[in-house]
Amino acid sequence: MSDAVRILVVDDEEIVRESLTGWLRQDGYLVGSAADGRAALESLRAESWAIVLLDLKMPGPDGLQVLEEGRRLRPEASFVLMTAYATVDTAVAAMKLGAYDYLVKPFDPEELSALVRRIAAQQALLEENESLRRALKREYGFHELVSKNATMQRVFDLARVAARSASTILILGESGSGKEVLARAIHAESPRAGEAFVAISCAALTETLLESELFGHEKGAFTGAVARRKGKFELAQGGTLFLDEIGDISPKLQLDLLRVLEERRFQRVGGSETIEADARVVAATHRDLKKAVAEGRFREDLFYRLNVIPVTLPPLRERREDIPLLVQHFLGRLTKDLKRPLDGVSPQAMAALVAHPWPGNVRELRNVLERGAVVATSSLIELADLGLPAPEPARGASPSGASPSQEEPLSLEEVEKRHVADVLSWAQGNVTHAARILGIDRMTLYNKMKRYGLRRAEEELPGPSTSRN
């Protein structure tokens, strides 16, 4: 029960305390009680409570007084006032003092359960955001790259070792997977970090323009060459030259580049002066260069010159556990860029982000979050702000021989059971991850797993507890 949400029930009527305590314990919460305002304040001083259900009319300090003092003692707690004498003035006073909400007696226990679940989910989200902030600073970063994926951690380890050498590095990965970001990180870790990092996209230019951009040109070398111009190799002297989309260069430039890598010297277009090439080359491509070599579209000798230290970046869909980390990383950047507070994304929005296939990889994720940050009306980004579809609901298997239109409708309980089972399966048994996607706390999910007979092999469930049908 160490992960259960802790709730303090404060009411001077014993029957109210007992009924609320029993109901909330059945929901899987850890519940304590206090018979008056003075006892409530003592409990708040002594222990940490996530939620405080607080009666308004009590002997000694009343609910508003306890609320005011309790907020000073436990600013992280959420306070809900309970009263049979609700007025607009009471509600306004409670909200001004920092109450999360208030309930009018008598209230439906299901209404209370729904409110507590909502508060617990919001607190879990804020706690997760804070833990992600700490994690980003602590162990998952490699300059501007963040990941806790095992494959990516191996990439980071290899990149750190490779950065200390002078060898050519070839970064492979889909478009938007962060190849230039990794190249910049390698430069920042290298002995050349104090010199220039120069980047060029080889796919964006014609052969003639790319040749001039790489090697520079002399005045009059071609129409429009009105002055001498240094190329990227000269500009990157002593530093790092990043050649993006190297798989798209022409056969002539493949040969020119091979000569530079072998001889470490070159000449400007239209010139005769030999210039030393002292730039560390990091190349990248989303293409399959081995296949291109086999098909005769890419020089084999150049491939081996570039492929001294190959580093492959996995696509985002293969490291979905990184999405919450990346979300927090980008929101931190967007907070500064947009000059507005961004506390995170809602559970529904996070579920959609985790479920999305991300054909554009990390670049697409960043763009989607920027859209959400711009259109969001509060500091919490909702699903509608992202412009992504909601994750498809779980569908039950069709009866044999029946088309979807002929299926017998499922009960609400069966729909929930199947959906919980599907989410647990998708999360590979990770209860914390599954609970986040479902928008509920872990203990609520544990209780649902018990109710529906769902198990996961790698972890024993908590001990038995009473559940309601």
Question: Care to describe what's here?
Answer:
With 469 residues, the protein is an alpha/beta fold. The chain folds into three domains: 6-135, Response regulator (Rossmann fold, 3-Layer(aba) Sandwich), CATH 3.40.50.2300; 150-313, 3-Layer(aba) Sandwich (Rossmann fold), CATH 3.40.50.300; 317-386, Helicase, Ruva Protein, domain 3, CATH 1.10.8.60. 46% of the residues lie in helices and 13% in strands. It contains 19 helices and 16 strands. The protein has helices spanning 14-26, 37-46, 63-73, 88-96, 109-138, 150-163, 179-189, 207-215, 232-235, 251-263, 289-294, 300-306, 323-338, 347-355, 361-375, 383-386, 412-426, 431-438, 442-452; strands spanning 6-10, 30-34, 51-55, 78-83, 101-104, 141-142, 145-146, 169-172, 197-201, 240-244, 265-267, 274-276, 280-285, 309-312, 344-345, 380-381. The strands form five sheets. Strands 2-1-3-4-5 form a five-stranded parallel beta sheet, sandwiched between helices. A five-stranded parallel beta sheet has the order 9-10-13-8-14. Strands 6-7 form a two-stranded antiparallel sheet. Helix 1 (14-26) links the parallel strand 1 (6-10) and strand 2. The longest helix has 30 residues, at 109-138.
Roughly what percent helix?
40-55%
Specify Rg, calculated over alpha carbons.
30 Å
Would you tell me the structural class of the helices and strands? alpha/beta
Strand content: 5-15%
**Number of E-type strands:** 16
Largest β sheet strand count, sense and barrel closure: 5 strands, parallel
Named CATH architecture of the largest domain:
3-Layer(aba) Sandwich
According to CATH, the fold-level topology of the largest domain is: Rossmann fold
Query: End-to-end span in angstroms?
Result: 21 Å
